[in-house]
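Q: Here's a chain of 773 amino acids. Please give me its 3D structure as tokens.
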Amino acid sequence: MSLLCTVRRENTTRQAKRLRRLLLASVCLFAFPLAELAQAQTIADKVSSIDVKQDAPLLVEADELTYDFDKGEVIAEGNVQVYYEDNSLRSQKLVYNQKTGRLIASGDVTLIQPDGNIIRASQIDVTQDFSEGFVAALQLETPDRIHFASERAERQPDGSVVFHNGVYDACASCVKDSNKRSVWQIKARKIIYNQESQLIEYDDAKFEFLGVPVAYLPYFAHPDPSSERRSGFLTPTLRQRDNLGFGISVPYYFALAPDYDLTVTPTYYSDQGLLAQAEWRHKILDGAYSIRASGIFQRDPEAFLGQSGDRDFRGSIETDGRFNINDNWVWGWQGYVDTDRDFGEDYGLVPSLSQDIASELYLSGLGERNFFDLRAYHFRTFNSTDNQDTLPVVHPVLDYNVIFDQPVFGGELSYDVNFTSLTRQDPETFVAGGTTFSPGIEGTTSRGTVQGNWQKQLIAPGGLLIKPFVNARGDLAYVNSETSAPALIEDDQAVTRGMIAGGFEASWPILVASQSVTQVFEPVAQIIVRPDSNNFSSIPNEDAQSLVFDDTNLFSLNKFSGYDRIEGGTRANVGLKYTAQFQSGYALRAVIGQSYHLAGDNPFDNQDIVQNTIGSGLEDDVSDIVAGASITSKHGIGAAAHIRYDQDAREVRRGEVNINGAYGPIAAAVGYTYFDERNSVNVTGVRSEISGSLAVQMTDYWRAFGGIRFDADLGEVVSGNVGLAYDDESFSMSVTYGENRQLFTDQNVEQTILLRMQFRTLGELSTNQSLDN
């Protein structure tokens, strides 16, 4: 007859405290013999004399504890909780055998392991240290939200878990919600989950999608989602294009070392053969670099007859790198070369309809009050209407900016340095509106600029803000022109240019406050006095070809976008700024103003070979009116508008309106852009474009989306897409139909259907189907 000692939990406070001490002491029953305990004594009577160790290896709590002296078993029943190191086990019943060192837990068993894994089972049979064991009716959830289930499982001494007749999916919430089912799952005769090697292996695996088996593999393996780097195959990609045929890419990743790796991607096209791709990545102590190479010997080059791709071999090399010299300095590069301009787009290696890509080498430094940047550029055009020789090679461009940390005459002093040198082989002029335009000159142009700036803010009586400023600059340029262009200096000669400007800006903020809104009205007036700009056309215009006059640069000292052009003469800029902050959460900002040329030559009425000032809105002594406004809110609604209005012709020359917002399941954006004819930038007619996007969350998982760009003047769709998407925690899918046009080139309409399926923890499948017109 076995001798049993039983202790039951009592509800009184005194008994609860005594029971907790008893349960701590019961841990010692697992570790040393109780032969010295008299059989007539109960455990409760003896516990007060036991010295409980604070580092006891095992703690058990339960409603009832029973010790069988003959069998050497401790039986815990009712709300059982076991703690061992960082392991936590809960069940309805626990039997611990002191002789075999095994724990058998049953009844709604939950085991939380130190790594965050949660095991749920009907029964668990494990060793005392939880290193190995057997589990029946197992469900395992990991911190990465993946889920295993099986009829039975075994924990091996190496820490791996073997699931027999197991199921794997990435829908951990499906365990808690019995009405929810995972979109996909993998069933296998045996699943081996090894956290140390971070690998999940399957024997006799069957992949099911929506409950239907779609693939069978005798062996299959993939990395544990917690694995950062591991050699193996990546997700294949399906492709199809008219000139290429059907293609499939099967990437393989080589995790060669912790600091470098290699990805090899062979893609076989049914019409053109094998496209080989490789990417090498290397991380060193102070930075990282990568090299990507692609190449193919085309089986049918005539499929690209009349295009740049009509050749046997096509390929490209792309590289980038970035390295930290110290906390303030960094250097790096980006590079791209190819055999022909269409290779990247034909084989899907660059974004569709990309215009160009820049290769650059740079050195950059950033301090608390200074900035240094040195770069060299080469541009590769992908546009069939562009001439590669028209694009310049920049060698180099230097910017250096310094702001003094100590006041000078009570104000802030700063200076800027810029040096630009470039070469262009063919300027390729064009004619628009009866006028000849050119992006530059043939040959080499070098220019250096140094300018200093001083400004100060004064507050006059009544709250009037006065900001006096002084600016002085000098330029030295050298032009080695291959052709004689009008209004340019003679070949192989240097030219100098200087400018000094002074003035002030005055503004008077007027605050108007109420319970519902706080408003600020701020009239602003700016006067800039300077001589005429000498040698206006003697320096080729390379970095100031973009000239957009709007409310953002109304009060700029120099409205030209770069250093090659500089304003001269006396000019006044006036305007009104307005801000309002509403209690409801809305904020409104607006500005309206105009610029006046008061004396001297108007630089915007002078022309050079680029002639970018034509139609700028500044060529008259009284400029066009510019205005802008924006509204924001905490409710997810926003809008912005900009306009340039010609008061003489009473016409809008440029306008832009954008509105976006979200309400409930709907998110939308709409925009309208208007450009008047401006031949200097090759806009030979009115352009009026409407754009919009819409996304609707129809259910918790399904959403519809679409977007469009429409040329209202020509009545043509520039681009558009519409699609349907599904997203849950384990699976994402989208189907998108898209159209792209280039209205002002001879390229055809591109129509595509993109299907993307992403299986969380496994990878992504996508295919981009090109359609005939």
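Q: Can you summarize the key feature?
A: The mean pLDDT is 84.
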